[in-house]
Amino acid sequence: MSSACRERTNGIARGGRCRRPGVSFGAAFAIIGLALLLAACQRESRPFETPPPADASNDEIAMSPNHPGPGGPQAASSARWEKYEQSAYEVAEGKRLFTWFNCNGCHSKGGGGMGPPLMDDKWIYGSSIENIAASVREGRPNGMPTFRGLIPEDQIWQIAAYVRSLGGFVRKDMAPSRDDSLSARPAENRLPAPRPQQAPASPLSGQGKP
Amino acid sequence: MSGSRLFVVCLGILAAATVSCIARPIRPPATAAPPEDGQWVMPAKNFASTRYSGLDEINTKNVEKLEVAFTFSTGIDRGQEASPLVVGATLYVLTPYPDILYALDLTKPGAPVKWKYEPRPEAAAQGVACCDVVNRGPVYGDGRIYYNTLDDHTVAIDANTGAEIWNVKLGDINIGETMTMAPLFAKGKVFVGNSGGEMGVRGWLQALDAATGKTVWKAWATGPDKDVLIGPDFHPFYKMDQGKDLGVTSWPPDAWQHGGGNSWGWTSFDPDLNLIYYGTGNPGPWNADMRPGDNKWTAGIFARDADTGAARWFYQWSPHDLYDHDGINEQILLDIDWQGKPRKVLVRPERNGYVYVMDRITGEVLSAKPFAAVNTSLGVDLKTGRLRMNPQKAPQVGKVVRDICPAAPGAKDWNPSAFSPRTGYLYIPHSNLCEDLATAEVNYIAGTPYVGAQVTMKAGPGDGHRGEYTAWDIAAGKAAWTINERFPVWSGTLVTAGDVAFYGTMDGWFKAVDARTGKVLWRFKTGSGIIGQPTTYRGPDGHQYVAILAGVGGWSGAIVAADLDARDRTAALGFVGAMRDLPAATTKGGMLYVFRLP
């Protein structure tokens, strides 16, 4: 997100990384104007290149909170949630691909069917974007097929980001707000945030906290 | 009662002009419904599929005293659609995935397990089963129990020892193919078909040699005539079903290869005509705009030579099906006097909402009358045989069409009806559901759903009841009585010589009703909703028993069995929209209940 963002916002903002504005600016007018610009920028930023296929093994995300021996479970995030969930574009692309690859055939609009629901607070194989991307890429033993080799890696992460929005993990100004067809459940950006004990491995962005 | 006496009685009744008269009672052919032997060796009870038992120890006078004889937990808490079988002194119970077969010893107190057989199907098969991981039952023949597994095996098990005799793989879960139907055993053959109409799986039915499992013949439901086993003996009654290679030409190029037409329902057999009868499922995808044409040979019925598979006739219930109205329901083979002439007929309460009475020799439709709320069609044209569709309810891509009745599961889904020769009624367990439907383009990706439709279901006309249990007077062509149920009636039913009919509800009531009046005579609350098929038998002690599996699930009960999220009304292909109050009414389970008189 940052490089595209920097290009578009040079000369307006402080340059460098595209962030939510602080409170140290002068006129409220400027703050609001800038905030809108920057928020819009961040929300809409689009990469101009598709990144090369990532090495999934770098995303060392535990699926269990239990960890025998000293130390806690490995929970380091790849920080990819930031790229994919902090962009309305990526999440919207995920929503489109969710139908394109027939995810909706099993998971419906998140309520489930042949596959489990994605909008409730039960995450059998973990709720982090890494866990979800791994579920799509590798499949899971009780019926989730593996889409490795069928869905490009970048699109797997877009789909995972969209699935996170069904779970209420994605900030409300990033999550989609409407369906183009039959409206049969609350829009993604109106779904409730997950309960605290279901906190994901990557930070919860639904409350606007970094 | 002799024909002439009945005729006189009829004249008297005719004066009152209330009942239509027939010269003879309606009966199944004797060869397809042998005299009562106290067993229950196939889910349909007999080849005619009457699900009628000649036992009458339990009857309208004493049924209120029924009590539990014994129970058995299947250990699996998904939808239990199977019919228990009773052969000799053994009761056989088949679970949903992982499809475990139990044999219970009826000679001992509490009916302990004699043996169990575990086929260990692929766990991944669960992900391609459209409508819960159900199994509709085993069948007995020649000392063996035969059944299908979710991952496309058919197995033959020694009925005495539980040893596997053969095990053949007939399909591939990688293309979304599963097997959920109960086989039919007849003439040393086992007839099996595949499921997968929601995954773009091409349908087939095949006959296996019961001794070896080897395929004797295989008939596809789409494609060129040679694949469909259509040859010189094929004489469909109506013009719409006549022509060369219609299984190709009634589709856009190559669409027949993913066109569905799966045979996941019921097969009947007429030994006199040596014909088997079975239906084909919905065409794929549900979005009908992607498959202009009649989409042969989906959503119809075949009559085939039992030995060679050669098609004799075909009739299409729903040409170019718009609503997922599979044509796989049970057909009851009956001999009847129709307008003064004896006819060999089959009677089908069909998913599209009509009870069809058809000549089973020729495939001619004698009558088609609605038994539920229908606005998708305006009746059947008996000249052309064609269902007259209602253009106002035709789906269109990009548009939401509202209040379509019946909904995708139809006026009646898979769960089979029963026929009593004592009343002349067909006992139909069914639904009262409508839906909103939006269709969309869909990609074919092997092994994923090929549907292209968003559906939300709701209660049909009335007070919000979603199920009905109807006694249909076949001779009169109308309902004799109907019992409304809160939830869709997703269980099978049976009727007995004691004039008692049994069925179960999705909130867990197992009911006995008076077969003549519909009065509820007895009911028992089971631990979980009932979607199974009841069985009645004479135990080794000489007394009559009634058995039912409780355990909610199936398409209708997926919201409970699979913990679906009620906030999404499109979940489970739209069924969740109509079932959002089910989780408050029942919980998961898997328990056999067997009842007897004290």
Descriptive key words:
heterodimer, A: 210 residues, mainly alpha, 2 domains, disordered N terminus, disordered C terminus, B: mainly beta, Methanol Dehydrogenase, Chain A, five-stranded mixed beta sheet, four-stranded antiparallel beta sheet, 5 helices, globular
CATH structural architecture of chain B: 8 Propeller
Label the CATH architecture of the largest domain in chain A: Orthogonal Bundle
What would you report as the Rg of chain A, rounded to the nearest angstrom?
A: 18 Å
Cα end-to-end separation of chain B: 34 Å
**CATH topology (level 3) name of chain B:** Methanol Dehydrogenase, Chain A
Q: Give average pLDDT of chain A, whole number.
A: 77
Order of helices and strands of chain A: HHHHHHH
Question: What is the C-level CATH assignment of chain B?
Answer: Mainly Beta
* Percent helix of chain B: under 10%
Please state the average pLDDT score of chain B. 96
Share of residues in helices of chain A: 25-40%
Q: By helix and strand content of chain B, what is the structural category?
A: mainly beta
Low-confidence stretches of chain A: 1-23, 198-210
Summarize the SSE layout with pairings.
The complex is a heterodimer of chains A (210) and B (598).
Chain A: H1 2-9, H2 28-44, H3 80-85, H4 88-100, H5 103-107, H6 129-138, H7 153-166
Chain B: H1 3-16, E1 52-53, E2 67-73, E3 85-87, E4 90-94, E5 101-105, E6 113-117, E7 139-141, E8 144-148, E9 153-158, E10 164-169, E11 184-186, E12 189-193, E13 204-209, E14 215-220, H2 225-228, H3 246-249, E15 267-270, E16 275-279, E17 300-305, E18 311-316, E19 332-338, E20 341-349, E21 354-359, E22 365-370, E23 377-380, E24 387-389, E25 400-404, E26 418-420, E27 425-431, E28 433-439, E29 453-459, E30 467-473, E31 478-485, E32 493-496, E33 500-504, E34 509-514, E35 520-525, E36 535-538, E37 544-550, H4 554-561, H5 582-585, E38 591-596
